[in-house]
Amino acid sequence: MKRILFILIVSIISIKAATAQNMQLGIQYFQDGEYEKAAIIYKELWNKNKSNEQLLHTLTECFIALKDYDKALQVMNEAIQQNPNQLTLRITNAALLTKINKNDEAEKQYAYVLANLPQNPNMLLNVSRSFDRLGKSDYAIQVLEKGEKILNTPGMFATDLANLYLKTGQQDKMLLTYLSMLKQDPSILNYITTTVQRTFREPKEYDGLLKAVFEKVQEDPQNPQLIELLSWIYIQKKDFANALRQLKALDIQTGNNMIKVYNLSMTAYNEGQFETAIQGYNYIMTKGSGSPYFFEAGRYRLKSMVEKSILNTEISEIDQLQIDKEFNDYINAYQETGMTVYATYDYAEFLLIYRKNLDKAIQVLQDLVDRKYANPPVLAELKIRLADYLLIKGERWDASLLYSQVDKDFKEGPLGQEARYKNAKLSYYVGDFGWAQAQFNALKTATSRLISNDAIDQSVFIMDNMGLDSTDEALKLYAATELLIYRNLLTEATVKLDSLLKKFPGHALDDDILYAQAHIFEKQKNYPKAVSTYEKIIADYKEEIRADNALYELAQLYDYQLNDKEKAKELYEKLFNDYSGSVFSVDARQRYRVLRGDENQ
Which of 34, 195, 293, 586 has the highest count of CB atoms within 10 angstroms of its CB? Predict the structure, then answer.
């Protein structure tokens, strides 16, 4: 008995091995275009396994390739006779009939399938997907729509139907299907938003969805998923005011969506919709300082007030006084918590840039450093900013001391590298080029790519311009001019640049002088002059080291100040194509892809 069983097992294994061998041989013949040989093998395989539709499909393909349509129809009809309830066979048969131009007979097969749909969800899905694979998506939709009625289970095939509606351009039906799905299963909200975001490209495409969701909200105003979806649509349309209104309603209803209000407020801030951002931050602050977003909301509310008040780079005196009061009220109210450090940091910047009160800005930061409220890394940031302000004032030794403290405390970290770079730049400003270049060379491998790029740029500049004359007088004058620009002493800087051009005509620093002049024009908000100056560098000094800098600065100017994204994109592309070795090429390529829309794909 055991011997018989052993022989049986060996026989089965041998048969399977032989079948596998034949299958491989058949595939090889088919791929090589030897359809006659392939047909013999596939016919033999199919005779042994007539439930395998893939074998049948390949066999008919062999006969079609041989133009033996009668045999193709013969095996297909034989298969249907043996499996009359297997509707997918009829769909395959219809596809065959279409290939041999028997379209009327093919349509009869399709009609038969639609008229004899089974009461089995899995079989209905198989039939629908068979239609879809043949490009008959309209029939695939009909199968599922009829199937839901046959089974009396609306929404059973909602996901497949939504995808088919999308494929056939029936966006309205797709959206209604998604909304029905959402009502039955609130957990699919993220799936819906992800699918829609992947599908839609333009804000106006959301109009149909907005209308459909708005109508559903009217019918079911207490449905939090619908309210959240409505807010999400407004965000896609960049209508942050309406999005905020919905999220506030959602928060009142559920009491747990403060993070959504915070995220929306931050998005509105980054998109320049400061009034909406302020409203969002105000709402968060009404919840009290116990909210995890309270202090960030307090800080960005003040930043939003500053940004909102800027008109032609100036803030009216009335707005300045109001904002100054708001800063002081907020800082004084919560200073003892230690949570207003960055708001104080922002206040110092406000005093410097808009109140033109450098001394008070320095005092505010100095008081904060002396109080030591902040943890060590934040305190280091404050010291760097205080040093920057002291350098602007002209107190370079005090500035250097603070930079050195941070460098010592954070030797290998980004903060230490930033402080070291700024200290090296200070030495450069005062003409100590040897020490400065040694520091820049050491910073070429900094962990911060920004510091590394700047260090490389500065090192190359010093190397190219030292020793061009019997002295380094021209470079010292130029470095001193850069310090004047940094200190915002633009009139003095302009005078010094003009004297440089007169004293050293045709000098290798000519492109650098133009580059410095462009920076002055930018600081003065004279963008047309800045543009023309950068363009002159790019056109006349394309082989000099400032060419790629000028191209990058010009692209940034069009991107962020002039809001001409197409021009910016063109310049970024030129930079990474023409100056592929530039330290700016990676950033240029990344920003180009963003402007091209790659992030939405």
Answer: 293
Reference 383, options 346, 345, 330, 437; nearest CA is 345
**CA 95, CA 113: separation in Å to the nearest integer?**
13
Is the separation of the CB atoms in 554 and 571 below 8 Å? yes
For residue 482, count other CB atoms closer than 10 A to its CB: 19
**pLDDT tens profile 149-187:** 998 888 888 889 888 988 888 887 888 888 888 877 888
Instruction: Say whether pTM exceeds 0.85.
Output: no
3-state helix/strand/coil string of 270-288 = HCCCHHHHHHHHHHHHCCC
The phi and psi torsions of 311 (rounded to 5 degrees) equal -135, 115
Closest CA to 425 of 457, 447, 393, 448: 457
Pull the structure tokens for residue 25: 């041989």
In one letter, which amino acid is 588? A
Q: Pick from 222, 279, 275: which is nearest to 245 by CA? A: 279
**In contact, 418 and 448? CB cutoff 8 Å:** yes
For residues 205 and 166, the answer to whether their CB atoms sit within 8 Å is: no
- C-alpha 461, offset from chain centre: 34
Task: Match 């309406």 to its residue by tokens.
Answer: 242
Collect all residues with Cβ–Cβ distance below 8 Å to 96 and sequence separation of at least 6: 60, 64, 72, 73, 76
Residues 6+ apart with CB under 8 A from 387: 398, 399, 400, 402, 403, 406, 419, 422
Q: How far is 281 from 300, CA to CA, in rounded Å? A: 7
The answer on pLDDT for 495 being more than 60 is yes
| Per-residue confidence band for 409, with pLDDT thresholds at 50, 70 and 90 | very high
User: Which is nearest to 339 in space by CA: 380, 298, 385?
Assistant: 298
pLDDT tens-digit map of 267-303: 999 988 999 999 999 999 998 888 899 999 999 999 9
**Residue 311's beta-bridge partner residues?**
314
The DSSP call for residue 534 is: H
Both tokens assigned to 491: 């009139």
Backbone dihedral angles phi then psi of residue 314, each to the nearest 5 degrees: -120, 155
In this structure, what token pair is assigned to residue 321?
Answer: 């006084």
Residues found in the chain:
601
